[in-house]
Amino acid sequence: MSDAVLTARSGHVLTITINRPDKRNAMNAEVVAGIAAGWHAAHDDPDIRVIVLTGAGDKAFCAGADLGGGQSFFQDLSKPTSDYADLLRLAQNGTKPSIARVNGTCMAGGMGLLCMTDMAVAADDVVFGLPEVKVGVFPMQVLSLLQQIVPRRLVAEWCLTGEPFTPDEARAAGLLNHVVPRGALDDKVAWLAGRLADKSPMAIRRGKYAMRAIHAMSFDEAIAFTEGQIALTAATEDAKEGIAAFQEKRKPVWR
């Protein structure tokens, strides 16, 4: 992993930080590869229960693609997928919960990073936007996730006008879980991560898998799938420990 992305572990939490503050944490190939490597590392380590994604400094979470690199929207056309799209796929198929710590400007492709996490906390002075139309392109890949979260008319306004919007507007649209004063950002992220880290890792992983699987199912398909999933979940060591701890009035020890 290059210096463009840093990882740090604290207890059961792995924090992935885009480390290009002088470029407003804009994405290049190294950043995309570094975030993907961090996601893989978190899933390969059984002791990691929560992923936090953020940007270095206090100016930007991620301002999108690095337009100064000369290759932001171009790729090897012999390759059927792009690295950025593959990163969004990786996060969607992940089974460990993730939180976006939105510490500054979140624009364009940075909005995709925001959307690929499960939850998000933002400082109340952050600026959001999808300004691609201003440079003659469109937030195509971001749409894949954005339209699952935000009402279509707001998606249309944001994408077609390219104009910025506020944290309060983002929260009202469902993009954010919490908006807090900048000085309270770290405490709120830690609070939310703690509420995930002390729960059954097995239940969360199987739950995320089920949520992803039933997203496009009909009710009849989803209920048939989930009745099988609850039977599998109930047979695990975590479920046995959780029920025993409840009966014995103690905290569970997750294995």
Automatic annotation (TrEMBL):
Q: Which Pfam families match?
A: ECH_1
One MF annotation (Gene Ontology) recorded for this entry: catalytic activity
The UniProt entry, under PANTHER family, shows:
ENOYL-COA HYDRATASE, POLYKETIDE BIOSYNTHESIS ENOYL-COA HYDRATASE PKSH-RELATED
User: Which protein family is named in the record?
Assistant: Belongs to the enoyl-CoA hydratase/isomerase family.
The entry's protein name is Enoyl-CoA hydratase
Q: Which organism is it from?
A: Phreatobacter cathodiphilus
